[in-house]
Amino acid sequence: MLLVEALVLKVLAIPLLARIGWLDFTTQKISNRDVLLLLCLGAGSLLLLSLQTGSWWDMGLSAMAGLLLFVALFPFWLLRKVGAGDVKLMAVVPLLIGSGGLVVFSSLLLIFALATALIVKNPFLLPEGAFRIYAQHLDNQGVVPFGVPISLAAICTTAFLVINSLTANG
């Protein structure tokens, strides 16, 4: 029964991640409230899974991955290369996806980050004029909404983990 509740918490995180990605794309801001809510959903899900399995390994490994990402990205925030919201979001995502999804998340993040960089650097690849102008505006400011690829990778990873769990336990 705890598995169902843990999956519900993960599913509830998907619209929140979509909101975070959209707001970062449109405003270049990731709110502390959204990151904290995501942390609660992820930690709650991991807690329920840890209680079901009787092992705290996944929760500990996810917390260590989050701490490592925070420490690794903090200097980039100090150098103004990434935003504080991006650093906090990256630190929270491992708690949402768990240690079993880190490889999938990392692979998807690399793909989405490269696609974002390509679009921002080459806005002529986009189909609509207004979208193209907006991307050029982002490039002129030197701001890349890194929360978008983080959110997309987390959404896809979370969906993959939920579907995989449902088919394995179905």
Q: What characteristic shape results from the CA principal axes?
A: globular
What kind of oligomer do you see? single chain
**Average pLDDT over all residues:** 88
The span between the termini is 13 Å
N-to-C SSE string, H for helix and E for strand: HHHHHHH
Number of strands: 0
SS strand fraction: under 5%
Note poorly predicted spans: none
Main β-sheet description: none
Individual helix count: 7
The structural class is: mainly alpha
Query: What percent of residues adopt helix (DSSP H or I)?
Result: over 70%
C-alpha Rg (nearest Å): 17 Å
Descriptive notes:
- This protein is mainly α and 170 residues long.
- Helix content is 82%, strand content 0%.
- It has helices spanning 2-27, 32-53, 57-78, 84-97, 102-121, 129-141, 147-169.
- The radius of gyration is 17 Å and the shape is globular.
- The mean pLDDT is 88.
Question: Quick recap of the structure?
Answer:
This protein is mainly α.
Which labels suit this protein?
mainly alpha; globular
Write the layout of secondary structure elements.
Blueprint: H1 2-27, H2 32-53, H3 57-78, H4 84-97, H5 102-121, H6 129-141, H7 147-169
Helix pairs in contact: 1-2, 1-7, 2-4, 3-4, 4-7, 5-7
